[in-house]
Amino acid sequence: MTDRRIRSPRPVPASDLAQLLLGLETEFEVPAPFDEATLAAAEAAVANLVLPAEDATGIPFFTIDPEGATDLDQAMYLEKTGDGYIVNYAIADVPAFVELGGALDQVARDRGQTYYLPHRKITLHPPLISEDQGSLLPGQIRPAFHWKISLDQQGALGAVELKRVRIKSRAQLDYATAQQQLDGGSKDEQLALLAEIGALRIEQERPRGGASLNLPDQEIEPDGDGYRLVSRVPLPLEDHNAQISLLTGIAAARLMLDSGVGILRTMPQPEEQSLQEFRAQTRLLGQPWDEGISYGQYLHALDVSDPKQLVIMHRAASLFRGADYHVINGQPEAEMIQAALAAPYAHTTAPLRRLVDRFVLLTCHLLTTGESIPDELKSALEQLPALMRESSAAANRVNRASLDLMEAYVLQSRVGEQFHAIILQEQGNGQGKASEGQLQLVDLPVTASFTGTAEPGSLATVKLVHADPQRRRISFEIVAQNS
Q1: Helices then strands (H, E): number in the chain?
Q2: Which of 52, 89, 317, 360 could be stapled to 164 by a disulfide with Cβ–Cβ 3.0 to 4.6 Å?
Q3: In angstroms, rounded to a whole number, what is the distance separating the alpha carbons of residues 310 and 303?
Q4: Predicted TM-score (pTM) of this structure
């Protein structure tokens, strides 16, 4: 391809980046700061809090989250028994602060979830609740839903108990430090049990054909006077911690399905054509998915440190579309599966950050106590699918725009440079117009469009020809196809 010079837009200085980020909030109409009435309602809720009568402060719970986290939804204490394990999982009791049908409830329904932007976090609840009095911070007595989940020696789900209690977390761990301690031979029994139980739960996915994908995170890091893009592969303890959360969501779904009331997180099976296309892509990328191996077994065997296998993981994630929420209303259980997990599942463990979890916790607790589900809660359950769809779509739009902006900002000084890339999708023509190809850079966590000719699954050398933060756009052209 003939080399050509592209006039790059004037580089956007760091001082203007802040304005572009703030502009996203206006453009995508993210929730405004909490008004005085909402902040006052949060203060009143804290002042009027009545802690549960049951005292579980003797259980040495701990939390494990990203470093610096303040909205701590979950705390755990793990036990090994003669015939298996007990998972004690405490989830922040947000309903203790947010009265059903009250002012805080309405604000939360309007927001739906916490928005995470590069420059700040827009919380679902006022910070007094989400990052202070409702958060399971260490050394503080807090109201919580205590899930006591029994597992057998293979990690299979057994008996489940659920109570509202008061707890006191003993320690706040972060993933990186905890993983370093575990890898260094730490004798911490809780970290060892977390790794042991997490590994067993991953094994439990295999016979079901499920696979929980913890894909690398795309992150922005300060770099001198600017920023850089990094791809961070989740640590093993992050995967193991995720399994505890998934276990609780599966237990909650089972409880609600058996009782015929509640709300589940669902996902349909991928279409057969999509599966066949995915199989073809795995062959092109040199890691064929054999017919005799389940989807979950295949994905668990991939090594995401290999760029081509990482592309396969991303393509696998795109197989499963149509995630939604469905209220239980007599449907066949087969219609209520979360297909990627190959099991019924409910969002349960993040009530500080996601609206639906609060209602799942309320429903599950009432079911375990034998109390009837009030009409107000039944009505709320019916409204939740639409509320969650709307908030998820809004959050996804601004998240995508934020990522596009930061990619263009970071790469604007590198226009004209060459990169190695894997071709995801070739240029095509459809409905009378040409479509750009899609590629993923090997050394940077960037997916972008390109012009030129290259086969899907091939490695190519590409040149960055455009990076415009104001338009949130980057593009490449093919220099050479390498394989």
Answers
A1: 12, 19
A2: 52
A3: 7
A4: 0.90
